[in-house]
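Ops channel
N.P.: pipeline sanity check, posting one input/output pair.
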């Protein structure tokens, strides 16, 4: 039976995280002077009680915007990107994709390309999930177009297509349908599109030894394979839902997200924000590299507004009662003729005043 023997509330604000290697989305808390330690039979439990931040990263960003376009004029193809922005409608997303495909074909053919945004599906008034489709008038020199969604980008989720898995190059792999007829290219995605690929922000505590688990895909260390259903030890403390303007979490039962630490002493705690694939928010690479999730600046997580506040509860939990070895005190074995010497310390004399051994 568990029993909480001590508790601490840890209030975190990362808005001034510009020293000691800390950033607004990768914060290091020093607990050396707090005396957080567990005795025998006890554990340290860290629980996420509250989390809040402004959604200062784009729906379309570096993690879900890349695609490769090939034509008969450039069979190797080149990589292109959707516009990094927030998406208010699927029509806005479809028009941007149409413009980027048209610009790519124009660049490869060195000729003008006609784009008619009014013919894009879904219609601007459609709010339900819909499949993106649009026509483009292309030069007569372009007879074939192939669009590929690379595996390391979430654009296949955003636009609704098939991802090209890592492996031998396949020139005829198509993530979406591209049909050319009478100088008209019609691009039709395969599945309904979506406005974002980051429904949750994950709060991780790297370096902690704990009992949580995660599927391998959430570690971001492997590609799609048959081993993705296996699990790894997890540093995930919890996750917060992404809304239009804010990212927030508040528990309903008090213990949805927690870490049971295996260590007895908690000297420091790192709080790192990532997406579901362990990437920094809105960007690829590591937290020590690109510090900006959205915008034209280069220091959003240090000098800018990529920051969060949180409340953590640290409990010292008694998991079991420790029982130590207890035995009776050993009494020395003394010959009967000397027993009176120990019972009465009188120079070794007995009750009659006679010395030991006197008969």
């Amino acid at each position: 039976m568990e029993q909480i023997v001590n508790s601490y509330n840890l209030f975190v604000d990362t808005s001034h995280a510009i020293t000691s290697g800390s950033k607004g989305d990768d914060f290091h808390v020093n607990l050396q002077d707090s005396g957080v330690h567990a005795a025998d039979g006890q554990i340290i439990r860290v629980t996420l009680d509250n989390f809040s931040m402004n959604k200062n990263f784009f729906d379309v960003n570096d993690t879900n915007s890349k695609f490769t376009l090939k034509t008969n004029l450039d069979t190797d193809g080149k990589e292109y990107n959707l516009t990094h922005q927030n998406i208010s409608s699927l029509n806005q997303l479809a028009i941007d994709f149409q413009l980027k495909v048209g610009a790519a074909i124009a660049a490869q053919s060195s000729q003008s390309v006609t784009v008619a945004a009014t013919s894009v599906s879904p219609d601007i008034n459609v709010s339900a999930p819909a499949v993106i489709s649009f026509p483009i008038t292309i030069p007569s020199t372009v007879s074939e177009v192939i669009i590929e969604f690379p595996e390391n980008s979430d654009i296949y989720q955003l636009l609704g297509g098939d991802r090209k898995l890592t492996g031998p190059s396949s020139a005829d792999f198509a993530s979406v349908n591209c049909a050319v007829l009478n100088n008209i290219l019609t691009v039709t995605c395969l599945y309904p599109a979506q406005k974002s690929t980051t429904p949750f922000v994950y709060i991780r505590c790297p370096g902690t030894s704990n009992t949580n688990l995660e599927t391998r895909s959430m570690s971001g260390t492997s590609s799609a394979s048959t081993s993705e259903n296996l699990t790894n030890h997890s540093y995930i403390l919890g996750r917060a839902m992404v809304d239009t303007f804010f990212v927030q979490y508040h528990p309903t039962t008090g213990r949805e997200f927690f870490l049971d630490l295996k260590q007895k002493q908690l000297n420091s705690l790192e709080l790192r924000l990532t997406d579901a694939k362990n990437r920094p928010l809105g960007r690829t690479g590591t937290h020590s590299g690109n510090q900006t999730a959205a915008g034209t600046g280069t220091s959003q997580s240090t000098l800018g507004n990529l920051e969060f506040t949180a409340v953590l509860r640290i409990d010292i939990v008694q998991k079991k009662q420790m029982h130590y070895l207890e035995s009776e005190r050993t009494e020395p074995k003394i010959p009967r003729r000397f027993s009176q010497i120990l019972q009465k310390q009188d120079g070794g004399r007995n009750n009659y005043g006679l010395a030991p051994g006197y008969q």
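N.P.: looks fine end to end. The chain has a mean pLDDT of 87.
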